[in-house]
Amino acid sequence: MRPTWSIGAVARQTGLPVKVVRHWSDVGVVAPVGRSTGGYRRYDTAGVARLRLARTLRDLGMGLGEIRAALDREDGLTEVAAAHVEALEAQIRRLRTHQAVLRTVTRRTTHEGLALMTRTAQMSPDERRELVHDFLADTLSDVDVPYFREGLLAAGAELPDDPTDEQVEAWLALGELVADGELGPAMRRIAEYTARHGQGAQDDAAAAEMRELTDVWVGRVRAAIQDGTAADSPAADQVVADIVAAWLPSRANTDPSVTSDGTSARKLFHEQLTAASEPSVERFWHLLCVLTGQPASAGIASEGQWLTTALHANPSPGARDAQLEALYTNDTDPWPGGVLEAFTRVQDTVGVLVRAATPDQFGLPTPCDDWTVRELLDHLVWENLIWGGLAQGTPPSTAHTDDHLGDDHIAAFDTAAAEARESFQQPGLLERSFGPAPGRRLVEQLLIELLVHGWDLATALGDDRDLVPDLARAALPVVREIYGDLPRTAGGSIAAAQAAPDDASDLDRVAAFLGRRVPTDS
Q1: Residue 498 in contact with residue 485, Cβ under 8 Å?
Q2: What is the pLDDT of residues 293-349, one digit of tens each?
Q3: How far, in Å, CA of 364 to CA of 312, rounded?
Q4: Which of 501, 509, 519, 503 is nearest to 464 (CA)?
Q5: Residue 382 parent element (H or E)
Q6: Would you call 232 helix, strand, or coil by DSSP?
Q7: This prediction's pTM
Q8: What's the 3-state SS for 427-478?
Q9: How far apart are CA 49 and CA 75, in angstroms?
């Protein structure tokens, strides 16, 4: 006869409280084999073994339903254990993520740590992981670029076991980028363009060629930016020509009939560049590189914006030059007192504002996006240097991005202004040819730059914006004529035109046409 035990004896053998054994009996985890003459439950060896296993599964975190399913089916234990292993792994990942974020918080100031915790609380690790995974899986599901989609899925979006602060930041930023909603459409645009043009997975040689071509155009554009060359200026045409010459013989040129620089070549190259120039996608790949510990290349969004603008403004070789040449055939001088006198008055007016600016105001924002007062003052000095140098035939040796102010912004401006004024007063300068432009147009260009940036400085400092009203009135039609056809893009010289209030001054209207938001005076 098989031995049996009372519920108390079973409780002692299994380490479970009597009430737990009784409850588990009631819900079907274990069944007694009979009852004593007094009506008490009796359990056999198999029941005791079942209870011991049930306790082990409970200690691992399983619920009663999972425990009962594992014990009731011959193969149920393996299946339930595997599912539980997966659940435990997810829990471990979640805890490691919280641990990584908290470690990062301990290395921040109170303010930075609070901001980091707030970002974490806005989306749980599971929600963030699910959001990114769904994005990776679904964004390109119906576009015929399987290698592209596989590359995304392979990249993943998990934090390493022992992440750096930078990786924690990247992980948080990745979820925010996906949640923002711009990344999906941008990724689809790239994939759809790739699918339309039959650009499949690249072999190593093709990939190396594309990297080399990218290095060429990025380097050429960075040099142009360093030199202060505006993307929508005639000077950008040669930069475009050099880059197109490198692109034509490469495999990036997908049209065999396009063999020389011209409208067709620049149009195709512009299409390719526009399709690839998606800042959110570039940000996405950068974050994945940080997460996976791969070298993250320097961003090239600003260079891409410059080049797309230059292609837009110079759609064929010499196009911008020809456009300006037609404009320059009008040799009338619209400026009261003549362009040279008008320039002198504007330069003197801006000089007063420069001298009024104090170092404690250098950090103030200005109507020029991302420029502080100090950066605006530096640009005013540079404008005098570059245009005065062009008039002298000796462009400045310093770069556009160098610091031109030093420790004395007033002296820096006065010196550069005097040099520009002296160069413009050369005999015959106004009629001398500078490419398609007469010297008068060089003077006019600096006049307009100083007038508009003077408005920026006055606005930033809270001074009267209505500078030299008669010259501002003359400037409005000139500015519209010169800049009206320029692309209003991120890489261009001017932003999209803004609406001016009904009572706006003429200079307010000039500033609004060139993309500034005119303050509403109270």
Answers
A1: no
A2: 776 666 677 888 888 888 888 889 888 777 776 666 666 788 899 999 999 999 999
A3: 33
A4: 519
A5: helix 373-392
A6: coil
A7: 0.56
A8: CCCCCCEECCEEHHHHHHHHHHHHHHHHHHHHHHHCCCCCCCHHHHHHHHHH
A9: 17
